[in-house]
Amino acid sequence: MSTHEVREQASGVNGDRTIERVAVHVGNSMRTIRETFRAYLARVPQLHHLSHYTQTDWDFSIGAPSRTDHAVMGSNLVAALTRLNDLLTPVGTGALIRVVTHCDGGAVLCNTIMQGERAVGVALDPSSRHSLRDEPTRQADMAVAELVTELRAGFGQRSQDPGGFQNAELDNSLRWVPPEIHGDLDARIRAVLDPLDLQYVAVLHEGRLIVVNDVFDEGATEVFFRAGHTPAGRRDFYARFLPTLQQHSLDIGGIVNATIGRNMRRLVLDVQRGAICAYRVDPRTTLVGITLNQDQVALTDIKTEWLSRTPHPDAG
Fold first, then answer.
1. Are residues 62 and 149 in the same domain?
2. CB-CB contact of 206 with 190 (8 Å)
3. Would you say residue 1 has pLDDT above 50?
4. Shared-domain flag, residues 274 and 289
5. How far apart are CA 185 and CA 191, in angstroms?
6. Is the pLDDT of residue 15 over 80?
7. Rg, the chain, Cα only
8. What is the number of alpha carbons within 13 Å of residue 133 lying toward its C-beta?
9. Do residue 76 and residue 222 come from a single domain?
């Protein structure tokens, strides 16, 4: 991958070098955006690398020196997520705006600035617990969301609130305490399903749906549905889409593993109206939680993680 120039400078955080690479087709353009990227890297030590993409074309990268070509990784990731976005279109919850891939060595964060324009951040965290409650990864995740929101404001576009991080109740979501439930997984799922946040839960084993439960028919959930996107229609869509999710996760994990290691236990597909949160229980089993409420993406993520760490039915 050719570059127009390579510059090295002090990061302003801890004196480490920062390398900036710019693609030939960018040249001396996008100066304001590049300056904004540099400012976020200097301000947020949990962020180690940022790249910008137009469609799948890499435009520029800024970050600490690395043996891994993060720019190529990002291009491959954007291509995979573009295909995934197309598959999610029929369910009527909007385009992908934020994707979190969380592995043993940290997370790769891909946020949409506008259609065809994305920012990809890398947060290295060897102590990762694959959780939104991981402080370093969450700080990086929130910073990329804030960066994208700032860039959108620069050309007159409103925030899409990636991650639901602008919700005034975010701190309460992060402090969520699970109920004292001693029953089986079904009982635990029923205890945490809620018409306003975690609205659908499924367990996949080797690509088969073995558990499905939702509150789509409850009255408080009615506001999240429209003509053509009924509870039954969305159940049918997820019944078709979710069995493919484990293969998508494997494909994405293969793209990011050179950057953040193996064992992608957490994958968040954050769309304009809600999110799909997938947690790997074991190599053959994945638990999925879904919300249609953008304000409650964080709480849905945390509840889904809790369910993924509880005993699961014999999938054999």
1. yes
2. no
3. no
4. yes
5. 10
6. no
7. 19
8. 15
9. no
Residues 50 and 26 in one domain: yes
Has residue 316 been placed in a domain? no
Query: DSSP of 173-236, one letter per residue?
Result: HHT-------S-HHHHHHHH--TTS--EEEEEETTEEEEEEE-TTSGGGGGG-BTTB-HHHHHH
User: Which residues 6+ apart lie within 8 Å of 207 measured at CB?
Assistant: 243, 244, 246, 247
- The pLDDT tens digits for 120-132 are 999 999 888 899 9
Do residue 119 and residue 214 come from a single domain?
Answer: no
Task: Tell me: do 184 and 289 sit in the same domain.
Answer: yes
**pLDDT of the residue at 126:** 87
User: CA of 117: how far to CAs of 93, 142, 177, in Å?
Assistant: 19, 18, 37
Counting the structural domains of the chain, the total is: 2
Structure tokens that stand for 287 in this block: 């638990």
Tens of pLDDT, residues 140-188: 999 999 999 999 999 999 999 999 999 988 999 999 999 998 889 999 9
* Domain membership flag for residue 26: yes
Whether residue 211 lies inside any domain: the answer is yes
Residues 196 and 55 in one domain: no
Q: Are 271 and 250 in contact (CB under 8 A)?
A: no
pLDDT tens-place string over residues 43-53: 999 999 999 99
Same-domain check for residues 154 and 186: no
Average pLDDT over residues 192-201: 98
Token match 């065809």: residue?
A: 116
Give the bridge partners for 286, in sequence order. Answer: 204, 280
Residue 315, domain member (yes or no): no
CATH number at residue 18: 3.30.450.30
- State the burial class of residue 289 (Cβ atoms within 10 Å of its Cβ: 0-12, 13-18, 19+): buried
Confidence of residue 11 (pLDDT cuts 50, 70, 90): very low
pLDDT tens digits along 78-114: 999 999 999 999 999 999 999 999 999 999 999 999 9
Return d(Cα 7, Cα 309) in angstroms, integer: 45
Which residue range forms the structural domain that includes residue 220?
Answer: 170-308
